[in-house]
Amino acid sequence: SQQGEEDPQALSIQEGENATMNCSYKTSINNLQWYRQNSGRGLVHLILIRSNEREKHSGRLRVTLDTSKKSSSLLITASRAADTASYFCATGSGTSYGKLTFGQGTILTVHP
Amino acid sequence: ETGVTQSPTHLIKTRGQQVTLRCSSQSGHNTVSWYQQALGQGPQFIFQYYREEENGRGNFPPRFSGLQFPNYSSELNVNALELDDSALYLCASSPEAGEATDTQYFGPGTRLTVL
C-alpha cells in the first residue's frame, strides 16, 4: 500500500518557471525523502529532511515539512527542460527496518 | 566509487517460470533493499537484506525470496511467475540497516515482462 499521496499527479510548466509538488502521508515518520526518476529507470535521491526539520535547501531545490499536517512540499526553482521526470516522496519510519514507503509520484514536464 | 548495478536490464519470461535478478551494492554499503514498481505506480518495498539475512519484508508472498552474499551483493528470486509480476524491479543499497534514516541509492532496475 502507498503511504503518501502526491499532488498534482502531473504538472506542465515552461522553462524558467517554478514547480511545486506536494506530498501527504499517514503515519509518523523519521524522515521524508524526495527522489527523481527519468523514463522508468532508477531513482535518484534528491534531498532528505528529518522529522525535526522544517525546511531544507539544496541548489535549486527547497523542501518543507509540516509534521502536524503530515505533509511536505518540493519546490524546484528556475526549472529546466532537464528537470522533466517523475518525482516521488518517500517516508521512513523508525520501526520499519529500512523500508521506504513511496507515493505514486508527480510527473513533471518542463517545456523549453 | 561504484554505484549500484543490476542485471539483467530487461527480461521476458512466461507465466509459471522462475526468475533470478541480481544486484551489486554501492561500495561500502552493507544493506540491500528490493522494490517492485508497477507501471504508473511508486515503488513498493519487497524486503531488505543485512549481513546476509532478511531484515524486513513487505507485503509480498513467499514465492518472492532473496539472498545476500558476503560481498553484500544480492539476488531476488521469484517463483511461479504471474502476469502481475511484470514490473520494474529496483535494488537499493544503504550504509546501515535497522532504521530507515539513511538515504537509499538505487540501481537502474530490471524490467521484467511476464507473458
What is the name of the CATH superfamily of chain A?
Immunoglobulins
Largest interface chains and counts: A-B, 31 and 35 residues
- The count of β-strands of chain B is 11
Strand fraction of chain B? over 45%
Low-confidence stretches of chain B: none
| Global morphology of chain B | globular
Question: Architecture of chain A, CATH level 2?
Answer: Sandwich
Distance between the termini of chain A: 36 Å
Rg over alpha carbons of chain B: 13 Å
What is the count of DSSP helices of chain A, taking H or I runs of 4+ residues?
Answer: 0
Mean pLDDT of chain B: 91
Structural class of chain B: mainly beta
C-alpha termini separation of chain B: 37 Å
- Total number of helices of chain B: 0
> Can you tell me the CATH class of chain A?
Mainly Beta
Tell me the radius of gyration of chain A.
13 Å
Largest sheet of chain A: 6 strands, mixed
Strand content of the residues of chain A, in percent? over 45%
Describe the structure.
- The complex is a heterodimer of chains A (112) and B (115).
- By secondary structure, chain A is mostly beta strands.
- Chain A has no helices and 11 strands.
- Chain B is built from no helices and 11 strands.
- Chain B has strands at residues 5-7, 10-13, 19-24, 31-37, 44-50, 53-57, 64-68, 74-78, 87-94, 105-106, 110-114.
- In chain B, strands 2, 4, 5, 6, 9, 10 and 11 form a 7-stranded mixed β-sheet that branches.
- In chain B, strand 5 and strand 6 (53-57) form a beta hairpin.
- The relative contact order of chain B is 0.33.
- The interface between A and B is medium-sized, with 31 and 35 residues.
